[in-house]
Amino acid sequence: MSQDQATLDAVTIDDSGDFSFPEDYQHDAGTGLNEATLDYISDIKKEDDWIRDFRKKALKIFNDKPMPTHWASKDLENIKFQDIRYYLSQGQKPTRSWDEVPDDVKQTFERLGIPEKERKFLAGVEAQFDSEAAYSNVKEELEKQGVIFVNSTEGLREHPEIFRKWFGKVIPTGDNKFSALNSAVFSGGSFIYVPPGVKVAHPLQAYFRINAENFGQFERTLIIVDEGAEVTYMEGCTAPKFETATLHSAVVELVAMKDAKIQYITVQNWSNNVFNLVTKRGLAHENAEIRWIDCNIGSRLTMKYPGVIMKGRKARGEVISIALANDGQHQDTGAKMIHAADETTSNVVSKSISVGKGRSTYRGQVHIPKHLKGCKNNTECDALLINTNSRTDTYPAITVRGNKHATQHEASVSQVSEDQIFYMQQRGLSEAEAMSLSVNGFINDLAREFPMEYSVELKRLIDLEMEGSVG
């Protein structure tokens, strides 16, 4: 038997991404969170002293900040921070050649279709396995135009003049307890810089994979798009199911300079043992546009509220989100829109589905101060309940001062009709197929916002969730 075949035989296979490879790590920080953990990470990465100091200051802030006493905070008590492994890697530096990726890592991402997507429609790919990127590549023609697409470790080391200027500026270390945790132990993530006037025609993609048990993944992504430039970035996330809790706590900072456009698309399919606690925020300068398109399926608890600070006149911010909560899951998601200049526009469209005993929550914030004029906001929150045991909550906080602005808010809650399901079953569909058709119809207008490959994947994930929700 070949070594490759033996490795494949050791894999637990599941279409939802629930498979893992035997662990073989060259670098393992062990369990526990203290200054020695941070020194281990900095030593492995050969970081400058200012980064080491940044990490240690962040650790102090994390330790000093109490756990949130709102949101879905009760479940956070189940996170045992001293039982988590904060850094795991196989010692690999990201290779530019797919053939040079370690076999087990390569097989993971090939099962997830990464190289195929790269060949077909992507301008660049990064694939992160636990704490570090295993593969990173950008099309040659983009490199010639000055586009930078590397992992954050390379960004810090090779492009400090750009990276350091914005690092931690959009999301300060002390923004919340989990942004402080990420600042202390961050590893991996993407660094992208698009020069003035360059419009990246095809998406850049990163894929984040958790393979190990009792592990925490803390990628840090920074995207800077210069004047008049445009980029679309997509990320996918999966993890196998373990009996113990897994923690994912990322920080994503976006900077759109004058007339720039950033579209950031996420499709996550975490297993239901993952605590997904993410801070995402963009800074939009004059006439710039930042769009977050966010799909949350899976995880035990997700707390994620992508935001846009509209700093420049006529800046635009948008969040389009889909969340599906099944048994034992809580999707606590929403958006934050901070208007900080005249004639700025924000749009929030949120759709959530609650299945079984799942719970979905929309938590939003819109802030328009008194001294501004000509600002606009639209907020829509629609929820679908699959049965009587599921739950949905909506907490929109819209603060508008002054009388020179336009805002509107709409919310609805509906339940799948038994008559509708019965009608579809009479025409040959199973109950799961009928449920899936109803859910896909509910989100259909938002699913069109995803690229074709991602909207197809989204429908497939919903089909899988519905299969396990009936019977």
Q: Please give the share of residues in helix.
A: 25-40%
Q: Estimate what percentage of residues fall within beta strands.
A: 35-45%
* Number of separate strands: 24
- N-to-C terminal Cα separation, in Å? 41 Å
Count of discrete domains:
2
Poorly predicted parts: 1-22
Total of DSSP H or I helical runs spanning 4+ residues? 13
Give me the secondary-structure category. Answer: alpha/beta
Radius of gyration: 22 Å
Mean pLDDT: 85
Main sheet characteristics: 12 strands, mixed
Gross morphology is: globular
Q: What this model shows, in words?
A:
The protein has 471 residues and is α/β, with parallel strands linked by helices. The chain has two domains: 13-304, no CATH class; 424-471. The protein has 13 helices and 24 strands. The protein has helices spanning 3-9, 35-45, 49-64, 73-76, 103-111, 114-121, 140-144, 152-158, 160-166, 177-185, 418-426, 431-447, 452-467; strands spanning 27-28, 88-89, 124-129, 132-138, 148-151, 190-194, 204-209, 216-217, 220-225, 230-238, 246-248, 251-256, 261-270, 274-284, 289-298, 301-304, 307-310, 316-325, 330-339, 345-354, 359-368, 376-385, 391-400, 406-415. Strands 5, 6, 8, 9, 11, 12, 14, 16, 17, 19, 21 and 23 form a twelve-stranded mixed sheet that branches. A hairpin with a 2-residue loop joins strand 3 (124-129) and strand 4 (132-138). Helix 2 (35-45) packs antiparallel against helix 3 and helix 11 (418-426) packs across helix 12.
